Every structure is written in C-alpha cells, then in structure tokens.
Amino acid sequence: MSLLKTIKQSIHDYGFIPYVLYGLDRLLKYISSQCGVEYFHLFVLPVSAVERLKIPQALRHGFQLEILHEPAPDLLVFETPFTTIQYRFSQKTMTFILKRDGLPVAKLWLAYDLYIEDVVFCDIHLPSNSVWDFDVVVLPKHRLTMVFAILWEQVLRRLADRNVQWVFSRIAVVNRRSTEAHKRLGGKVIGNLAFIKLWNKQICVDLIQKKMSLHDQSRRKKIYLADLIEFFNKPEG
Prior knowledge:
The protein is an alpha+beta fold.
C-alpha cells in the first residue's frame, strides 16, 4: 500500500483530527520523551445497560466477582506496580476482580467523587450517583472470550444495587477495540479532550466546553461532570 493510501485509510478509520494529533504526538515524542499528545473520548455508560447483557447462565458458571479496598496478591497478576496500587487505594477507589475457578482473569477499577488523572493534569469531579471506571484489563488468553461481558454484567449489577446510575470513563481515540466494546454495552461519547504535553506543561483542548487552557501540576484542569447531567437526560432523536 502506498503512503498516500495508508494516510487516507488512517483518516477514514480514525478521522482527520485524531490523525493530525497522532502525527503531532509522534513528532513531539521524537523531540522528547516528556512531550506528546493524549486524545480521549469521554464516555458515559448508564448502569441500566446491564439489561442489554443477556449472558446465558451456563457461560457464567465458574466465575466469581470480588471487591478489593486494599492491596492484595491477586492484583499483582495484572503487573500493575505496587506503588501505583497503593496510591490508587489512598484515594476513594476500589477494584473489582473477576475470577474463574478461583484464578483472576480480569479487573476493573472504580473511583467515587473524584478521579485524579495520572496520565494528564486533570481532575474529574463526579456526581453523587456516578462512578469513574479506569484500568480495565482482561488477561490475554481470555480476550477473545465472554470474560469482558461477564465482568461488566457483574459490576453493573453491583452498582445498580448501590443506586449508581452512571459510569464515566475516558478512552484513547485510537483504541478502537475498547471504544466499540463500550458502545456495544450502551455507552455514549459525550465529548473529546486533547492534552498536548510539553515537558512540565500541558495545553488542554477542551472540545466539550470549546476552549483551551494551560496547566501544570499545581494548576490542573478540572472537569465537573454534574454540569453535563442535562445532556445525559436528553431523549434520543
């Protein structure tokens, strides 16, 4: 395939803006490993989406969901650094681990009230009836199975029992597999955020509020998702 055809196919697959930002990311990383671009979809998933998941009982056999509020050996299977695990639990977070026959096969982290991004300078403030999901991992040998769907079904049922209505997350625009998986669950893209990282500074291009701003560790971007509740409640069509 010629270079021109490759570029056209990439623009077709991801869109013009993501392709341009991807090129900028590569250029900035060539200049310095401390530079780059992060471009995210901001997703919202209604907890009621659990009703879409009609998983036969036979396929659920052997699976158990556990909730962790502190570090445990099962988390080490997923190769998350122990210091990162400790930092996450120091915030208002919990981990759901899906096991099959007693062995971990997938995990999902949830944050309440506030999610402090560790990739970009951004703090996500959550409504009281919602959570933020991050670091969803299915172990490699289970990725072409029903494990992802079973994990989400069991997590959403637990959240419904706690009267949680919304699950928010951010997904890299280039991560098409995760994007499509969230859409199949019933998730909706409610906006995009781009962060241009320049050493210890970041430029946020907020495509939700239509503005740009400059940030560093002491002046972090703040997003209040409660301000978007009216958007979530708009009827379809």
